[in-house]
Amino acid sequence: LAGAYDLAMLANPKNKSGDIYLATLYKFLAPMARSRREYDQQSYAFDIARLFDSEEVELKGGRRYQFGPSRNNTKALRILDKEGREHFLATIRFF
């Protein structure tokens, strides 16, 4: 996910905020239609939910991540946490 984030940041140098839509990252993770059949958006949302519920993870090099909401819920992923509460996650930022 961090690698796809880095590619998305390189592809869009105008993005100064560092927030990337999770839907955009999915396109970098599964660029071909065949890949999207094998790793569909439901599986991607499940993996994002597991990452959201996990303890704070620090990546190699000391990078961390932060999820963010969006006013545009059409681009948000709907996930359920461990307690069954619904969350709409739209963006992620690595810092």
Descriptive account of the structure:
By secondary structure, the protein is α+β, with helices and mostly antiparallel strands. It has one domain (2-94). Helices cover 39% and strands 19% of the residues. It contains four helices and five strands; from the N terminus they run H-E-H-H-H-E-E-E-E. The strands form two sheets. It has a three-stranded antiparallel sheet with strand order 1-5-2. A hairpin with a 5-residue loop joins strand 3 and strand 4. Helix 1 (2-11) packs across helix 2. The protein starts with a helix and ends with a strand. The model has no long low-confidence stretch (mean pLDDT 91).
Give the topology:
Layout: H1 2-11, E1 20-21, H2 22-29, H3 33-38, H4 41-53, E2 65-68, E3 77-80, E4 86-89, E5 91-94
Antiparallel strand pairs: 1-5, 2-5, 3-4
Helix pairs in contact: 1-2
- The coarse overall form would be globular
SS strand fraction: 15-25%
Content-based structural category: alpha+beta
Say what oligomer this is. Answer: single chain
Uncertain residue segments: none
Instruction: Report the mean per-residue pLDDT as an integer.
Output: 91
How many helices? The count is 4
Which range best describes the helical content: under 10%, 10-25%, 25-40%, 40-55%, 55-70% or over 70%? Answer: 25-40%
What is the string of helix and strand elements? Answer: HEHHHEEEE
How many domains, as an integer? 1
**Widest sheet: strand ordering:** 1-5-2
Total strands: the figure is: 5
Rg calc = 13 Å
Largest sheet: 3 strands, antiparallel
How many angstroms separate the termini?
Answer: 13 Å
